[in-house]
Amino acid sequence: MDDMLKEFVVEALDLATNVEEHLLSLERNPGDMNTLNAVFRSFHTIKGGAGFMNLSAMVSACHLTENLFDALRTGQVAVTPEAIEAALEASGFVADQLTALNNGIPPEQLSTMPKALEAMLTDAIESKGVSKKAAVPAAPQATATAPEPVAVSTSSPSANNTDGVDWEAYYKAVTPVGTLPEPVAVAVATTPKAPSAKEEHEAVKSSLSSTDVKHTAPAKEESIRIDAVKLNVLLEVAGESVQAANQAAVLLEKLSQFKFDGQAAPLMAALTETLTRASRYSTELQRATLATRMQPVGRLFQKFPRLVRELARDLGKEVDLNIEGAETEVDRVVVDSLYDPLVHMLRNALDHGIETAEERLASNKTARSTISLKAWQEASSVMIEVSDDGKGMDAQRLRDKAISKGLINAHDARTDDEAFQLVFLPGFSTKEVASSVSGRGVGMDVVKTAVERHRGAIRISSELGKGTTFLIRLPIELSIVPTMLVRTDGASLALPMATVQRVVELPETFESVGGQPVLRDLGRPLPVKSLGKVLGYMPSSERVGIVIAAPNPYILSVDSVDGTADLVIKPLTCISTPGITGTARSAEGELVLVTSLSFLIDGCKVREMMTA
């Protein structure tokens, strides 16, 4: 099994495990739309990887299940026990296929999709679902007794099977060597009955799970795959040790203001030396931990040329993929989290953005199009850009489509930049009929969800007839974030340094444009927004401004700036607060609220829309 298939199997197995948990939860709470969408995304992601690996049976099962959940989430089909059973059966089939691959079975030896499973999913989609017990024969219970001797016919398959399948050869292929009964010299007079699709599936599953199956042992791993959660914990501990050392240094500085005589003086000197050494070691631990997690994004980018080539061939388009900046290093957790978003973005560019050769020639373009995948480091962020030279986006068409689907009202998304962001809404798609590539309105939702989960932001720029560019900004390292500490209404907040350009002094009065206060900065008029007002704090006298680097730059007014600090971020898990991504502790031990990167880049619009 090659490296790409190994990574797909590990990631897909995790998704398949989560799918079963979500399905059981959905059975208890049929109206939970978040769970419905989570299951839908999981099957969509598995199907994309399976299609890339040419696993046709898995693609078929996932595609049918997608159709089922598309009907469930749009209300065309009710969430019934039969629908849940069909989805669980499909999840089990996908998990069995992945387990077989993980055990060393070559992809070409995997079983086909059982007819009974296909019928269950089809009936569930058409609201004709019946109980699994009635539709599919129950699997035989395993016993400890030895099996009865089996008489194997020597007749040809074509003479004994109406479906033309050589079941004898199939049985031999999946049965461990040395356990087959000796063939009988005289053929049995009666024609053996071909096993059902369910029996075929159970037979393959049983044989694959046998501890006696002898497969070629996979090559010895030179590296160890570590759970991302464990890596996060390790780095968090390293960050906390640095934070503790910083707090101790602050306390020691305050303590040194007092006069110590006698035996206390050498103790203070020893304490100072010890804390200095502890601070140095904690910093080295943090750097070493970061180094173990840093990897070039080229490890991820190398997976995409084949994907683009094969998908372009399927779509009948001529496309070149240009890759730049593959040597850019970033946290491994960030690298792993980028795979699904980039797959969806590339598939979206190929299906929606790139024209056919005939359409390009008619528009005075070259017949062969280009998709560019670039990466570079910018301050404490890594930038990932996916651009194409296709037909671009029609902002007005995006607005009309979103309004017709009931996703926005007629007064939303007035600017082109806001209209481009509509593609990230769940359920949004400009295609009338869903295909195996796109059209379900889930792909770009997956992209935005994945990027913001890692405290990143994504923006779109497009020019009709020229092409489209997606720009992702992610922190190079996840747990520790360089920030600027500010105050508003007595509260301490942290702004990611990736968005901070400079600090300016604010006057008592401002110019006004359309009722919005404006201040000229370096000759350009920038709108002034109150951080306290946007986040719901009491109005205060804010005389310090921070120029925010965003697609539409603006000035954020605060009471004061307390300096900069590298903070260990604790994500908010129990509540969701617009504009706030997590909490941290300052060197003095004070609780700090950390503002969201995407919130600042979007112009602090979330709270304003909610309070409007």
From TrEMBL:
Alphabetic keyword roster: Kinase, Phosphoprotein, Transferase, Two-component regulatory system
CDD domains: HATPase_CheA-like, HPT
Residues of the HPt domain: 1-101
Pfam families reported in the protein's UniProt record: CheW (PF01584), H-kinase_dim (PF02895), HATPase_c (PF02518), Hpt (PF01627)
EC number from the UniProt entry: 2.7.13.3
Ranges annotated as biased composition (Low complexity): 140-154
SUPFAM superfamilies: ATPase domain of HSP90 chaperone/DNA topoisomerase II/histidine kinase, CheW-like, Histidine-containing phosphotransfer domain, HPT domain
Entry-linked Gene3D superfamilies: Histidine kinase CheA-like, homodimeric domain, Histidine kinase-like ATPase, C-terminal domain, HPT domain
Reactions catalysed according to its record: ATP + protein L-histidine = ADP + protein N-phospho-L-histidine
Name of the molecule in the record: histidine kinase
Species for this entry: Undibacterium rivi
Taxonomic classification: Bacteria, Pseudomonadati, Pseudomonadota, Betaproteobacteria, Burkholderiales
